[in-house]
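Standup notes
- DV: blocked on the single-chain target, sequence here:
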Amino acid sequence: MLLFVNRFLRDLQLGVKNLLLHKLRSFLTMLGLVFGVGSVIAMLAVGEGASMEALEQIRKLGSRNIIITAQKPAEEQGATNVNSFMSIYGLLYEDVDRLHETIPSLQRIVPVKVMPKEGRLGQRTMDLRVVGTSHEWFQLVSRPIIAGRVFVQNDVTQKNTVAVLTEHGARRLLATKAAVGESLRIGSNYYEIIGIVQSESASEGTMQTPDQQTDAYIPLSVAKEHIGDIFTQNKSGSRIREQVELHQLIAEVVDEKKVEATAVAIEHQMSLYHSKKDYSISVPLALLKQAEATKKIFNTVLGAIAGISLLVGGIGIMNIMLASVTERTREIGIRRAIGAKQRQIIAQFLIETVVLSFSGGLIGIGLGLFIPWLITQIVNMPTVVSLYSLVLSLGISVSVGIIFGIYPAVRAAKLDPIEALRHE
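- DV (later): unblocked, structure below
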């Protein structure tokens, strides 16, 4: 064993010495693997970071949640320019009870009513998205509480005129004032601000989250009484009038395994009472599975493209090692003449290719770590460098060196010693 180790170290020392005799050529040979490894790591990091945001947005909606959203029927899209026309569509208060009674796998359903209103606090005003909902909304769609509290069951049953603002809206309305305890005017009514929660909005290109940056949450019972179900807006010389009882239902399923079957049951139940198809159903769990599958395909494609650079690097190594065999033909003949075996010649050349590929892989890892960092700093795009991509890239780099170094090594070992000694 000790003899084998000593022989390996001697061959390694000789291999490094031979490579250092031609420093520039060795460096240029490594460049193909450097850029190959660097591009594999960088492209996987960019792909991982891009998909991470989309996956995170979907996860925030809850893997056990099913979101039912009101949508205007297609046949009513062009009819809003008639002043006397009122579009009646969307989800109903009765839908909540019907779904609870007919689908036992539902744990709870949170109704949501949405109305655009102007908020006024002192001299400051801004457009708000007023969200009437139950206290359970904050349990299904988790938002960190920055100040105060969110409303509870008593606020809903007693119809307390309280409001919870998102951080973005609170900053614009209140500026440097303390938020909790202030009175916010929405329409003709005043609401006591009891809490502020963190703003949350979807990134461009991802699925929309249930809340917005300028939300004001109030109890659903108060929204029904003070705001009602009819929305009127004057736009481009015409009056838009719509009657929508509920804009969204967030249904939580008792078990994640039952989510997809429950979504089918909800679709069937809703179709019985909504012939105009004035709703849409989205299942975050199904979207999550689809996004994860797409992510795997995306990473595979990126890895395959970057792997081409490694292939080119391997061809470069084979080319330079074949040239090295030609240059060192006489040296090989001398070694064979004094008793060197074919496997020792093969080992010597393979050690040189492994040193080249391993060194190129290490430099490539450094490049692969630098490029994602640079991308994040310049374009503020998230990138994720995973340990497996580093190990995989270095392993592939060494493997490429061995695979493409075998042929030159075998060719060197099979040289006829007498012919090799005659080589000038």
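- Follow-up: The CA atoms of residues 349 and 409 lie 5 Å apart.
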